[in-house]
Amino acid sequence: MGHYVNVNNVNIYVEDLNPESKKAILFLHGWPGNLNLFEYQFNKLPQLGYRCIGIDTRGFGKSDKPFYGYDYNTLSDDVGAVVAALGLRDFTLVGHSTGGAIAIRYMERHKGYGVNKLVLVAAAAPSLIKRPNFPYGIDQETVLQIIEGTYNDRPQMLRNFGDIFFFKHTSQAFSDWFFQLGLQAAGWATAAIAKTWINEVLFADMETIHVPTLIIHGIHDKVVPFQLGEIQHRMTRNSRLIPFNFSGHGVFYDQKEEFNDFLVRFIENKY
User: For the chain, is the Cβ count within 10 Å smaller at the N or the C terminus?
Assistant: First the structure.
């Protein structure tokens, strides 16, 4: 059931499946898609008794697309507003890629309000790009090329990004579907998030995580290198890292059955 939550005059689109369930999972999608990236979780997990809530990040999907507000503070405040509007308590927070970065900022800025478990999926943290004294991640030049491509030929940039997103072979129809998700975003929002990767880091934020944390990362990830998942594991108390050996960045699809299974087992304390 889709509806909007108004956050400071910006309408954030929320999909809420199986709201009668008391076992809630809140999903934060990655760039440049929207909540529909989790289609293969939304198909399955409500059948298992879970409430699945997806948010379209501002600027993406069906949410409003203001020109400003793409820093991690504002994006995490959007999440906080949805949590408050839905009255969520004791839920599992799942963040993929940039959604993982937003989830981490939420844990720091909002003190993890309502979250009893955290799942970081190929999260863009603590820094997506290499920095002085942090020789991990991707080169800043790669992000600058993405920004330039967004401003000059966004469809081609999205095609190129889709080509490295998944590890397993996808059909042309699936590739086209993924491409269309990216086109639903605003160009300015697409570029602004990429600028945030350069402008912000999450080192201090990660130290505030206080709930059991599952880290899932594909070893073939060409977007957020697997090494970042290892660093997240070392930085996060009470965390477990699960390498996905046949996955790239889109682990929720590359190994969707294993992904869903690990998520359920983590929530149900069945490790």
Answer: N
